[in-house]
Amino acid sequence: MENKKWKTIYRTIMLVIVVSIVTFIVTNIISYDGNRKYVITARKDADINEQLETALSAISEIIEEKYIGDIDKNKLIDGALKGMVESVGDVYTEYYTKEELEDFSATTLGNFVGIGVYMQADLEQDVVVIQAPIENSPAEKAGLKTGDQIIKVDGKEYKAKDIDEMSDHIKGEEGTEVELTIKRGEETFDIKVKRGAVHINYVVSKTLEDNIGYIYIETFDEGCKEDFLNAYNKLLTENIKSLIIDLRYNGGGLVDEALDIAELICDKDDIMLITVDKDGKKEVTKSKNAPIINMPVVLLTNGATASASEIVAAALKDNGKAEIVGEKTYGKGVIQELVYLSNGGALKVTTSEYYTPKEEKINEIGIEANYEVKGIEEQERKAIEILKEKMK
């Protein structure tokens, strides 16, 4: 109920802001209380910042004076900021609260403090289940296993719908302990796990038939290039002669990391990326070094291949460094910049659009595969077939 009240407040605040932006005048927004009338006014020549300040100040005053519940001013501010950013109408432009920024940063950097498990809500059984413990994590070292059900955390019971609250409870300071009640098969037991630093490796590799290497990149987090190079060098010790890079379901990540990986394959001075900002200024990014990977490469893509992974796909395809097998990519051809704010939050704002090295638009269009193939196994078989032919 409390959340519904706050959402109503936020919507009220942002309705005022949207009206202000559209009409460029803040007048005649009136609420009656007996004979008292509240009117929000700003100078007719006031800029948008003054209009917003006037509107928010007046609404805040009314809420503080009249609202019957407790008021968390920080939430009020965060709600107003979120509403204003949402009114821009860009799904990629977002406001993060301090807490949301911490979670976002942990995901992007691939490092966080916790116990290190992937969890999912099993709605049928109404429980939270461990998908898998992260390699070398406190959870793995404590003996937690795939399929374990987490029934309680520090004695508090959680259901499937409570997975986010459970996750927040499990997080904590490094070195502290959390007690989990686990159900494994017919057995139920308590286990204490000491929280620690967890590193998520988003790069997975293996050697396939006919000396074909395979590297899957889940996302371009910080350190992805290093993880990719480590995987590639390990495959070289297994005598690979060609390489499949799997970007299916890769939703993007850090553009610099994606470019660093593309540069491992592109020739020196190859154009890898073209960006255009709101003023039409064009910036061209070229490869600065000779390639490290000199072998046939096939990329795997699908409709969930997006953003930074599309940069890699376009760079390698347009420069003739790889052929693409699979399905057309998602088509997110815009770049966001993260601006840190003094309140501990941040604004992620779309600042430019990017194009392929051949200056073709990506946003809302996507990148076509050289070989249109549906089905996960069918795509992999086609990639292997192409590389076998190239190695003859």
Describe this protein's structure.
The protein contains 10 helices and 21 strands. The protein is of the alpha+beta class. The protein has 3 domains: 86 residues, no CATH class; 88 residues, Pdz3 Domain, CATH 2.30.42.10; 188 residues, 2-enoyl-CoA Hydratase, Chain A, domain 1 (Alpha-Beta Complex). Helix 1 packs across helix 3, helix 7 runs parallel beside helix 8 and helix 8 packs parallel to helix 9. The chain is flat and about 80 Å long. The N and C termini lie far apart (68 Å). The N terminus is likely disordered.
Radius of gyration: 26 Å
Number of helical regions: 10
CATH H-level superfamily of the largest domain: 2-enoyl-CoA Hydratase, Chain A, domain 1
Structural class: alpha+beta
CATH topology description of the largest domain = 2-enoyl-CoA Hydratase, Chain A, domain 1
What is the total tally of β strands?
Answer: 21
The main β sheet shows up as: 6 strands, antiparallel
Residue windows where pLDDT falls under 50 for at least 5 positions: 1-35
Mean pLDDT: 87
Identify the CATH class of the largest domain. Alpha Beta
- Beta percentage is 25-35%
Comma- or semicolon-separated keywords:
392 residues; alpha+beta; Pdz3 Domain; 2-enoyl-CoA Hydratase, Chain A, domain 1; 3 domains; 6-stranded mixed beta sheet; 10 helices; 33% helix; 29% strand; disordered N terminus
Q: Can you lay out the helices and strands and say which pair or pack?
A:
Blueprint: H1 2-23, E1 30-33, E2 36-39, H2 48-66, H3 73-86, E3 94-96, H4 98-109, E4 111-114, E5 117-122, E6 127-133, H5 138-142, E7 149-153, E8 156-157, H6 163-170, E9 177-184, E10 187-194, E11 196-199, E12 203-208, E13 212-217, H7 224-237, E14 242-246, H8 255-263, E15 271-277, E16 282-286, E17 297-301, H9 308-318, E18 323-326, E19 334-340, E20 346-355, E21 371-372, H10 376-390
Parallel strand pairs: 13-14, 14-17, 17-18, 18-21
Antiparallel strand pairs: 1-2, 3-20, 4-11, 5-6, 6-7, 7-8, 7-9, 9-10, 12-13, 15-16, 15-20, 19-20
Helix pairs in contact: 1-2, 1-3, 7-8, 8-9
